[in-house]
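can u pls check wat happens w/ magnesium ion
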Amino acid sequence: MTDVVHLDGITKRFPGVVANDDVTLRVEEGSVHALLGENGAGKTTLMNVLYGLYRPTEGRVVVDGRERQFDSPRDAIDTGVGMIHQHFMLVDPMTVTENITLGNEPRKWFGMAVDREGAREEVQALSRRYGFSVDPDARIEDVSVGVQQRVEILKALYRGAEVLILDEPTAVLTPQEVEDLFEVFDELTAEGKTIIFITHKLGEAMAAADDITVLRNGRNVGTVPASETTREELAELMVGRKVLMDVEKADREPGSDVLTVDGVGVTDDRGVTVVDDVSFRVREGEVFGVAGVDGNGQTELVEAITGLRDPSTGRVAFGSEDVTDWSRRRRIDAGLAYIPEDRQERGLVMDFDLVENGLLGSQHTEAFASGGRIDWLHTREHAETIIEEYDVRPPDATARSASLSGGNQQKFIVGREFERDPSLLVATHPTRGVDIGSTEFIHDRLLDLRDDGVAVLLVSSKLEEVQSLADRLAVMYEGELMAVVDPDDVTDEELGLLMAGEHPDRELPSRAMNAGDAVVDTATDGGGGVS
Ligand SMILES: Nc1ncnc2c1ncn2[C@@H]1O[C@H](COP(=O)(O)OP(=O)(O)O)[C@@H](O)[C@H]1O
Ligand SMILES: [Mg+2]
């Protein structure tokens, strides 16, 4: 067993912050090593040190048994260390081949011209060797995020990487693409490459890694073989205290209908039906979960409910009020809170500070404005309350949203929406990109709202999340609701089949619905397409 990478006592200080504190990390050649930790734990910084982007304040970087002084990524790449950052660095209008060979193109005519055909062939050969099906001639802007990630990997391999660092590579992928990526890891390690991947999802570390190193507050708090640890142990290492991995949900009788979605269809900008005759309702004090692979119409369905998009058929009602033609603002005034899928587009104004962002959606209300003037003192206190209660870091209401990490942006949005005192909460991917300590907190608060009588529509592609929180669970596939089931009685396999558009063999257990539940009946029996 040889350690291809040995970080020895690395400390990295930024003004006012110790991002890495005497971290020692050994990575075995040919292994997959997960670097696990919550947001801000120091994972990216540590890998940037290994990649030559940062000089360590103290400590040694040893690669292949020799101490190295990397002054830039160029030095790291020359030593066989490649890194794929969270934000890809590809050039959109260029082809896959051009991106991979950029700056290192094979030449012909004694170096006077780029050998395009040679480049293309090399890329194709490389792609085949690792079982990637990547079209060398496709333009980056035309391929999926999953393929773009493969292009980044190929680019590193093309430059001779033996050690590949990937920073949160699964954050942008669908569950299926995540599986594919982990298979790619296997292909690469079979060829002797070493993978270090950063994640804050302990399930992924368990699934894909040979060894797992947990960072907390800049320190290495433990390296364990994946086969010898448990989710509970990892969670405790990450958070520094015991974490309840199971959500505890009290029984609660739902009340009257808060949201009714009746035969809603949505046509997208290209005229394609993306939501097809969907009906369900959400009652007081219940969580209605919608599971499904991203891109099966969940986004458009939620937009139709929140007033961001006009449905092409059907109607949406809040209580007994038909709101189909209502503006978004009017819906918010009627008690709607909304955690959007895209926090940077819809959740926050990135250039605004947290004081201003805390006001979004409430700027015209009595509590925040009177006589046409914003009450800034109250607004600021409001933002500070959210920051404190939802543990937003840094705790500075005057910080611009753009300066916060994704997880902290999300905590702020969740806090703002939860504090609206809603009667209906529409939450899409409420914990995406959020660390487990905060996820637990958001889940608990969401259930508190439910226990207080709020109707919650929860859309998430994390099966575990919807299954544990929902009182009733629907699965969406190609724009249709496949079924409404009892989340406690349905198996993972049955859910997987529904998510793939198939029906399980046995009759699915659907949770008791009150008598005369006509709308839900159409969802489970007729309109939703359940046989
Ligand atoms: N360039 C930088 N300047 C100042 N502080 C930084 C810089 N990069 C990271 N930090 C701080 O260092 C800590 C660790 O950050 P990071 O390595 O990005 O964590 P992780 O990747 O685990 O989320 C955080 O407190 C972060 O704010
Ligand atoms: Mg990071």
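The two ends are 56 Å apart (CA to CA).
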